[in-house]
Amino acid sequence: MDVPNSVTLAAAEADAAASLAERERAFYNEKGETSYHLVRGWIWRAIGEFRRNEEAHDLYDAAGKDVLDYGCGPGYLTKQLIDAGAASVTGIDVSNAEIEQAQRRARQDGVEGRCRFLVADAHATGFPDDSFDLVIGDSIIHHLDVRRALVELRRILRPDGTAVFLEPLWHNPLLRVGRALTPSARTPDEHPLTVDDWALCAEIFPAFDHEERELFTIPLMPLNLVLPTRLQRRLAKRVWRFDDRMLARFPGLRKHARSTFLVMK
Question: Are strands 115-119 and 132-138 parallel, antiparallel or unpaired?
Answer without folding.
Answer: unpaired
